[in-house]
Fold:
Amino acid sequence: MIVPEVSAVVVTHGSAAEATACVASLRSALQAENIAGEVVLVDSGSGPAIARRLESAGADLLLALADNRGYSGGVNAGLARARSFRLLLSNADVVFRPGSVAPLLSAIDEPRVGAAAPIAFWDSRDRLRLPIGWGSGFRSDLAQLSSGRDPSRDRRRFAAAAREAVRLWQSGGPVGHLSGAVLAVRREVFDRVGRFDERFPFEYEETEWEDRVRARGLSLRMVPAARVRHLWGSSAAEGGDRARRRARSRRLYWGRRYGSVGRAVLERAARHPSRTLPTVITEPRLPARAGAWVAVSTNSSVLPFAGAPLDVDFELPPEVEERLPAVPVYLRSFRASDGEPLETYVWSKERP
Structure:
């Protein structure tokens, strides 16, 4: 039996169209890069109707799970059937660009690298870069929840994060946390640190797993030569009871990492958020500004953020705007050289 060079595990729930497009983009990327790979498509409890639609998606193997085991359970089910020693884990709402796979495989072939991820763009023109990841820590989590109470501290936090984001988007390298939308991993890393914890129903599963990876002395790597588009906000997993499931995952993670006292402190801060009052704008636009970038976030701290260079006028792409919920969106210009915030605005999408 010929073992593929990579096994791609794509996990979906209720999003047959996105999953089909993801598989097609993977097929194209593998063919363009002359990589012999297999695609394992895992449907996490969407039901018989969607499972039937996914039969024509073009995967080498379709696993239709009876129950919704979340992303973590879908990944674990796919890993059990994947044949390669190199694994590419992906959400269904991802489109792989040509040339995106080989750089990731090259990165994880280094023994000290535990996992690698590509740059993920939010728009079809590949300008608005999504956050690389958000590393948790008690102080950083508390500062995030307390944003607005100490403007000087907030500026320093943002500047440090902005400098790091621009550096990683441009040059890549080791990072404290990677977004779980796409992860390349060697199978032996899972053998060493264990699989995803299925007790996290929505989000935090990759955060907790990456904690274990780093605890074993392995690094996480950002690979800017690998590029994908992540249709964040379009997946069916973004709807329904996601807030309740995210809250469960967050409570579990906080308790496990910080103990009951630390969790109680963070939960209290979350119940009493601070408020900032930046300038209100009626359109999500910023003019070009030499040497500056724009940060786009739904958090009042503007962290984490999607970013794009302000070498030309910026306007939030309509395709992105359509997927955003009706919540305040913060836009901040900042200097690329040192991350220093320049101007901050807030725009609100009108409810349909």
The chain has two domains: 6-132+176-232, 279-348.
